[in-house]
Every structure is written in structure tokens, then in C-alpha cells.
Write a structure and sequence with these properties.
Largest sheet: 13 strands, antiparallel
Order of helices and strands: HHHHEEEEEEHEEEEEEEH
Strand content: 35-45%
Distance between the termini: 100 Å
Mean pLDDT: 89
């Protein structure tokens, strides 16, 4: 009887995690997932390029096209939106809800759009927005310049980069200058559907130096929230990759031509 009582009061066996801690081993649940390889880190940048670069013109076109299905009663304004909280439905079947201010500017020539809205066509493909976008440009002594921005969150099925949902704050620019045909650049942060997240620090490309790839500093985030730093300093699409001070070697992109794609978005029509 006494033996049974002593056994019943014996200390419990240590848990697996406690045993692992005492032995200096890491419990299976605490093992960190492996870091991306250098090429896998660069592949996140490939996703941005192949999905489509942020395009202010696509935002403008999507908004104006959706608004063109409205009428005098709903949403009631030609280029703006200001509906009741519950929204309204036009005779076309388009449902409009929210606020939007669209302005054309003369100095510099361009447009701006700020919006907090949802526009739903009969097909159900929602144009959703919570942010601002715009594009402006002008002439210079040697050529022309263009500048565009897309800030906040935007979603639409009308443009590849918007289909999964765009979030970020990006500034885009392009200019031409005599024999140095053009220079293009990007600066800011982009997320496509939360799956591809990159931070671009003064990325640029100049036709006289490197027209196939952007040069600059990039940071990409993996699915575990870890950031990888990539320095693209040569016109090869390759760069050294670091993760929190750990050198992962050189990785290379699989795509090229992103500077030309950005130029096509921003350059004035000839």
C-alpha cells in the first residue's frame, strides 16, 4: 500500500520539449524553416516582373471604364464618386459605393485619382481601391520626362498586377535625354496579393549603361517574414544575397527586359 502511494506521488516524466532543452537539442517544433537559396530570393523579384510592373495608366483606365457605366442617378457625377454608405446601383447593373476624386492637371500635364471605393459590375468582378494614383509629364530641353505613383491598395481583374491585389507605395519615373535615349526607375515597396513582397531602393536603368536589367538595392520577403537583401550592381540580372548578415551567395533572375516594360508604360505616345 505504501509502495503504491509513493508511486502515485512520483514526479511526472519530463515533457519531450523539456528533455530536449536539457540535452541542448532543439525541439522539432522550434526548428526554423530553411532559408531561401540565393536563386529562390531572386525568384521573388521575377514574380513582380513577370506578373506586371505597377502601371498608373491601368489604374486610370480601370476607374474611368467602370465609371462610364454609371448614370445621372448613380453615381450621379461624371468623373467623381460620392455615394451613400450603402451605395447605389445604376441602370446598367453596376453597383457603386464610396468616394473618389479624379482631377486633370495642366502644370504639369497629368491626372490624379484618390479613392476609397468598390465598383461591382453585373459579372461580379470588383474594382476595389483605397489609395491614390497619378501620372504627370512634360518636355525638357533634351527630351521628355514622366512620373507616376500608386499608393495604397488596389484590386481589379483588368490588369495583371491588380488581379491578385496590389498594396504598396511606389514612385516610377522615366526621361529621355539626347543620345542617352532614356533612364527609368522605381523606388518604394510592392506587394502582390501578399505572396510577392519586395522593397526597391532607387532601382534604375539607363539605355547607355544597362537597358536589360534594373540596378539598385532590393529586399524581398519570404513567407516566414524574413527579409533578404540583394544588391544588383552589374548588368547581369545577378546579385549577392544576404539574410540578416548571412551570406547566401549569388543569385540570378530568370527574366530580363523590365526597364523596357516600364518605359513602355510611361513614355509618351509618338
Amino acid at each position: 500500500m505504501i509502495v503504491s502511494m509513493l508511486l502515485g506521488c512520483a514526479a511526472p516524466e519530463p515533457a519531450a520539449a523539456d528533455t530536449a532543452a536539457e540535452s541542448g537539442e532543439t525541439a522539432p517544433s522550434e526548428v526554423a524553416p530553411p532559408l531561401l537559396t540565393a536563386d529562390e530570393a531572386l525568384a521573388i523579384l521575377d514574380v513582380i516582373y513577370t506578373t506586371g510592373l505597377p502601371d498608373p495608366g491601368a489604374v486610370q483606365e480601370g476607374y474611368l471604364q467602370a465609371l462610364s457605366h454609371g448614370d445621372e442617378e448613380c453615381p450621379g457625377l461624371e468623373l467623381q464618386m460620392n455615394t451613400q454608405p450603402e451605395g447605389c446601383t445604376a441602370e446598367s447593373g453596376y453597383h457603386y459605393s464610396g468616394l473618389a476624386t479624379y482631377l486633370l492637371t495642366e502644370d504639369p500635364v497629368g491626372w490624379s485619382l484618390s479613392a476609397e471605393l468598390e465598383i461591382t459590375p453585373p459579372s461580379g468582378a470588383v474594382l476595389g481601391a483605397g489609395g491614390a494614383a497619378g501620372m504627370w509629364g512634360g518636355e525638357t530641353d533634351k527630351g521628355w520626362w514622366r512620373q507616376g505613383t500608386i499608393n495604397g491598395s488596389w484590386q481589379s481583374g483588368d490588369a495583371p498586377f491588380l488581379s491578385d491585389g496590389y498594396s504598396g507605395s511606389i514612385a516610377l519615373f522615366a526621361e529621355s535625354a539626347g543620345t542617352d535615349r532614356y533612364m527609368v526607375g522605381m523606388d518604394g515597396a510592392i506587394s502582390y496579393g501578399g505572396a510577392a513582397v519586395v522593397d526597391l531602393s532607387k532601382m534604375s536603368a539607363r539605355s547607355s549603361e544597362c537597358a536589360a536589367y534594373f540596378l539598385g538595392l532590393v529586399q524581398v520577403r519570404d513567407e516566414h517574414g524574413r527579409w533578404y537583401q540583394i544588391e544588383l550592381s552589374e548588368c547581369t540580372g545577378c546579385g549577392e544575397v544576404l539574410q540578416d548578415g548571412t551570406e547566401l551567395g549569388e543569385g540570378c533572375m530568370q527574366t530580363q527586359g523590365a526597364p523596357a516594360a516600364l518605359l513602355a508604360l510611361l513614355a509618351p505616345e509618338e
